[in-house]
Amino acid sequence: MIDLRSDTVTKPTPGMLNAIMEAEVGDDVFSEDPTVNSFEQKMAGMFGMEAGLFVPSGTMSNQLSIAVLTRPGDEVIIDELGHVFNYESGAAAHLSSVQLRPLKGKNGKLSRQLAEEAIRPKNDWDPHTRVIAIENTTNKGGGVCYSREEMLELSNLADEQGIFLHLDGARIWNAIIKTDIEPEFFGSIADTISICFSKGLGAPVGSMMLSSADHIAKARRFRKMWGGGMRQVGLLAAAADYAVEHHFPLLEEDHRRARLFAEAVDENPSFQIDLSSVETNIVIFDVKSAMAEDVLTEFSDAGVGIIPFGPKTIRATFHFQVGDAELEKVIEVVRGYGN
Ligand SMILES: *Cc1c(COP(=O)(O)O)cnc(C)c1O
């Protein structure tokens, strides 16, 4: 199957497996894994943050960030399409006793105005607005990127209000490739960042929380409490490091292929797509008359995996294990649909 269901479906390459084999390891719960320690420092340096914490998933690095930034009864402002709001099993309510305030932004992005209007006064009876959580690129929003200006406006708002900015950067790598914004910029606007190595970068496991040394020390304790303290995990850090070094530049090609796919979708009258929102490796489109499930079945019979993102909405996601030959076959299936 040509698997466009997600960019998480990639398998480790021989080069990556070799990096795993060669990794020097130690017990990371004792902070003694040299591969993890140097990788955390490397990523923190890259993004202009003091420290990093290697964790099993992006959900954990998002939730650790919320846990260290908030107190029970606080409120976190987020776009209604946000991963933290839709795909983390209600974790913020359970783990941090905070409520999420979903706002209707555009393509999963918040604007300064929208966030500003949602910040509450500081009465005893008000939930205290503590964090603005943004996602870059947006997943459910279709892989769009924030501009430098949009992020600065939100960061300035957070500073003026004495509240925090969290950046869910599961696909920050795609945003960097697309916008040419240097990684350190993200460290300058955000208090906490979550980055993932297991999406388009193609590592089997692994995400990282980046923040101040203080916040990371607190997060380290929560990680252990939540069962995320790992032992000789340099094996996975080595795979993640390999992914950053070797797979990061390949994202550009994923974006090019996603664009060609989206154009083919646009040319088929059975589908509806907003081409202007296709910026990176994610393509979201609607089915006009049939249901998404019917299209999925037909694509699946033709050997192409895609997923439903609503009753009439479909998502296709490109990654480096779908090359030009596969793209050609996929485009044939798109062109053939309904004809
Ligand atoms: C995938 C993803 C995450 C984290 O997912 P895990 O499966 O927990 O690693 C977080 N945010 C966004 C936007 C994502 O796409």
Automatic annotation (TrEMBL):
Would you indicate the residue range of the signal peptide?
none
Q: In what residue span(s) does the Aromatic amino acid beta-eliminating lyase/threonine aldolase domain sit?
A: 3-286
Q: Which key words tag this protein in UniProt? A: Lyase, Pyridoxal phosphate
What cofactor is needed?
Answer: pyridoxal 5'-phosphate
Entries under Pfam families matching the protein? Beta_elim_lyase
Q: Which residues carry this modification: N6-(pyridoxal phosphate)lysine?
A: K199
GO BP annotations, alphabetical order:
glycine biosynthetic process; L-threonine catabolic process
Q: Which domain of life is it from?
A: Bacteria
Q: Which GO terms describe its molecular function?
A: L-allo-threonine aldolase activity
User: Which Gene Ontology CC terms are recorded?
Assistant: cytosol
Listed InterPro entries: ArAA_b-elim_lyase/Thr_aldolase, Low_specificity_L-TA-like, PyrdxlP-dep_Trfase, PyrdxlP-dep_Trfase_major, PyrdxlP-dep_Trfase_small
Question: What's this protein's family per the entry?
Answer: Belongs to the threonine aldolase family.
Q: What is this protein called?
A: Low specificity L-threonine aldolase
Q: What is the lineage of its organism?
A: Bacteria, Pseudomonadati, Balneolota, Balneolia, Balneolales
